[in-house]
Amino acid sequence: MSETQQDRGVTIAADRLVKRFGAFTAVDDVSFEARRGEIMGFLGPNGAGKSTLIRILCGLLRPSGGRAEVAGLDVARNPERVREKIGYMSQKFSLYADLSVMENLRFFGGVYRVTGARLAERIKFAIEMAGLGGREDALVATLSGGWKQRLALGCAVLHQPAILFLDEPTSGVEPTSRRRFWDLIYALSADGVTVLITTHYMDEAEYCNRIALINQGRLIALGSPGELKRSAIKGNLFLVDCDDPGALLAALQTAPDVSDVAPFGPSLHLLLDRAEADIPRIEQFLAARGLGWTAIEPISPTLEDVFVQLVKRTSPVEAEP
User: Is pLDDT above 70 for 3?
Assistant: First the structure.
């Protein structure tokens, strides 16, 4: 890591990272930087390459090409030293279900070589953070999903790492617990911890300082949620409420001035080349085909809109058979 990067507080630097498994390329020419105290989200569908990228940065997988530095260490040359300086919470639940809360904390304290008074202090912090006061002797198997994930986070930061990798930590956790988990992430970020988190929840990605959109192993966009929305959505976005979204979807795909139309729950998101002046033409187009609607109104783009548009622009066009 260069002195310039260090001066800017860069804690993670990836340069043209590639990871191949045989003929399959899971990570394809990915470059980015993350700074001290930043929450960077990696957003993409399952199989996009997010978890593979995390494992490379944690020193668990050797890259096929490119290089990466974490905490000033080359992940390919010094994987063991990298793992000493980071916290890692895997996609799969990593605690021991047949051990108690306290036994798990003591075990991971030993793994991270945290002992004596410092271990007692860090265990107290983890229990308070997870909201598990009074449940120290409870078996982990008896805890709810939200408590388990907060305990896993507590175990991952027992050694006070400066960098934290979270691989889809809230997958399968109910919304209230997810919000509580993010409160903990914000607190760690405020203390200067760099957090790199992967998720496929579009609403969760809004909580990040910056988002890296990943598709088919490639980094297709990088920026704050606001920056991505401003740069990716070319035109004006509308919500179409109707009783038969399937019929309107098929019709609007051939309508004039329509850049894109996509289903969003029971409604449609309609992207027009121009502004509200196009709406009368759309209404005339639908009425001429005997199609009804209850509302067509302008809306602000979501990250899902951004992702849909960017995937369409960056995906290779398949040749006709």
Answer: no
